[in-house]
Design a protein that fits this description.
Elements (H helix, E strand, L loop, with lengths): L9 E8 L3 H12 L4 E4 L11 E3 L7 E3 L10 H7 L5 E2 L3 E7 L2 E9 L3 H10 L6 H19 L10 H10 L3 H9 L2 H8 L3 H8 L16 H11 L8 E2 L3 H15 L2 E3 L2 E7 L3 E6 L2 E12 L3 H12 L23 E8 L12 H4 L3 E4 L3 H12 L9 E4 L1 H4 L6 H6 L2 E8 L11 H17 L20 E4 L1 H8 L25 H4 L9 E3 L13 H14 L5
Parallel strand pairs: 1-2, 1-12, 2-9, 6-14, 12-18
Antiparallel strand pairs: 3-4, 5-8, 6-7, 10-11, 11-12, 13-16, 13-17, 14-15, 15-16
Helix pairs in contact: 1-10, 1-19, 4-6, 5-6, 8-13
């Protein structure tokens, strides 16, 4: 007997395909508004990539396995859904060793401008560079403070967004961001190779691009990394990323949404009909609305499967017209559990301060460009640009009391410029090992001791380290080509001639089928852990269901 609590051909107001954090947010909003909601999740648990996991057998540490920091989750969503979420602010913004002299580094201390200015001087930055750096981000902050409130409102047009920027005194920042490659702006504003690199990383995380690309994908990425809360602060979720998705799941269930896990959607058909496999049986459900919390290209496959009678996907008129939806991921993700933090070549900074923010390795302006060119030519960059986050320094609760007492720490490494084109099913295992080695080599280049010697071992004798390629990520959580944004990012506004005739269009969640909406990271203004895609899709449904007032 199937454990599916639903009868065959069940009918709902909304079916949500995919139980990642955006799908949970949409379910919570719609159920709170009195709609009947069915959420179908392929995995054994909801949360998608926003989960915590015991990554190493027999080791009591729950890592934020795929996503790790929170910036774009609006307080409005937290308040609307009554989420009991705690986010901790990190004192240090970043630490960046000088690759030419490991004994010195740039430490940006959010709590001490004097110390930060001295650190700029210590790495050889010219006079005035710290002031220029400060003014650079201050200008963009005027812009992000103006744009942030629009992320949970109907889409502004380009002209409307530009007018918002002008009224906030951010006209120059608007022109710099939307008018030319961000690399031009960085190069004009800043002089030092290392300082320029620190800024450029905000435009590259999760995006395979050069500083001067004319399509401005790096500019859009830069905006999304600065717009969260209007301030661009990236916070640590207490209890791990699973605490965020867990609260969204609680809110959805308490509001009355039905959440079915181990439910593999096989087809999305016209008329709001969804087929799925659960407990060894085939099921069908229907709804007035289908909200897709899967990547747009995955939605295409599901619609394509329906069009071809459930057989292998073929060419289809539903294929997305947005080229951004096909962009590849470009990272290697490595999680480590250490006995303690490593000693640094730079003896002027404590490991706790260095790892207390974002730890940049081999990410100068020139190194980032060289790495891009190497990857574009088909090779793994050497050195590999990396960013490191130590969740456990800010939130030790993700470790057992025993691990805390022993001084253990987690590290999450995000290696840049590793495009999916380098990975195939045939070479994935070899590439994973090569990329893990490249990450460790890059990390060791700034340490006073080999990181390998600090790895904890599990009861099975294996070191506590795991690497995830783009293909691994696609297989684990369904992100096509390992793209952490479900595809490329779009501007959080539309062109002046865009069609905004329906609620779905106005909220940036429309597809070519009026009953099917995007509610995940592939929606306009999606990307990262934000719940914005889920919120906006739910708002489009509720607006559509509300009779117009004449």
């Amino acid at each position: 007997m199937s454990s599916n609590p639903l009868s065959s051909n069940s009918a709902f107001d909304a079916i949500i395909v995919g139980g990642g954090h955006n799908g949970l947010a949409a379910a919570a909003y719609l159920a709170k508004a009195g709609r009947t909601v069915l959420l179908l999740e392929k995995l054994e648990h909801p949360g998608g990539a926003a989960v915590s996991a015991q990554a190493f057998d027999g080791v009591d540490a729950r890592l934020s396995r795929y996503s790790y920091l929170v910036s774009l989750l609006p307080q409005q969503v937290i308040d609307d859904l009554g989420l009991r979420i705690r986010l901790a602010r990190r004192r240090y913004s970043s630490y960046t060793p000088d690759p030419h002299d490991g004994g010195r580094a740039l430490l940006i201390d959010n709590g001490d401008d004097t110390a930060t200015a001295a650190s700029f001087a210590a790495v050889g930055a010219p006079d005035g560079e710290f002031q220029a750096f400060t003014e650079f981000y201050a200008g963009f902050r005027q812009l992000t403070e103006a744009l942030w409130p629009t992320m949970t409102s109907p889409l502004p047009t380009r002209s409307e967004a530009k007018d918002l920027a002008a009224r906030a005194g951010a006209g120059a920042a608007w022109d710099a961001l939307t008018g030319r490659p961000i690399g031009d702006v960085i190069a004009k504003s800043l002089q030092h190779d290392l300082v320029r690199g620190v800024v450029l990383t905000d435009a590259l995380i999760g995006t395979f691009a050069r500083a001067d690309d004319e399509d401005l994908q790096q500019n859009i990425c830069f905006l999304y990394h600065l717009v969260g809360g209007g301030t661009g602060d990236w916070d640590v979720p207490i209890g791990g990323m699973g605490a965020v998705s867990g609260e969204l799941e609680r809110a959805a269930r308490e509001a009355g949404a039905t959440i079915l896990t181990s439910a593999d959607v096989t087809a999305v058909r016209p008329g709001g009909v969804v087929s799925y496999r659960h407990a060894g049986a085939e099921h069908t459900a229907s709804a007035s609305w289908v909200l897709a919390n899967v990547a747009p290209v995955v939605l295409d496959r599901l619609r394509n499967s329906a069009a071809s009678g459930g057989t292998a996907p073929q060419a289809t008129p539903h294929a997305t017209r947005n080229p951004n939806h096909h962009r590849e991921g470009a990272q290697i993700k490595v999680n480590l559990l250490l006995k303690r933090l490593p000693r640094l070549l730079d003896e002027t900074v404590s490991p706790e301060a260095a790892f207390g923010g974002t730890f940049h390795i081999n990410e100068t302006w020139s190194q980032l460009d060289a790495a891009y060119l190497a990857a574009a030519a088909g090779t793994i960059p050497d050195p590999l640009p990396c960013e490191i986050y130590c969740h456990s320094l800010t939130d030790p609760t993700i470790l057992s009391p025993e691990l805390q007492a022993a001084g253990a720490q987690t590290l999450t490494v995000f290696g840049l410029h590793v495009p999916d084109r380098l990975i195939t099913p045939e070479n994935n295992e070899r590439r994973r090992a090569e990329l893990q080695a490249a990450v460790l080599k890059s990390l060791n280049s700034v340490l006073a001791e080999p990181i390998e010697e600090l790895l904890l071992t599990g009861p099975d004798g294996q070191p506590c380290i795991e690497a995830k390629t783009t293909l691994d990520i696609e297989r684990a959580v369904g992100m096509p080509r390992g793209n952490i944004f479900h595809g490329g990012l779009d501007w959080p506004f539309v062109e002046d001639n865009a069609h905004l005739n329906t609620p779905a269009q106005r909220w940036g969640v429309a597809t070519d089928d009026p009953q099917i909406l995007l509610c995940g990271s592939g929606a306009r203004r999606g990307g990262a852990v934000s719940a914005i895609g889920g919120h906006n899709a739910a708002m489009a449904v509720l607006e559509s269901d509300t009779p117009s007032q004449s």
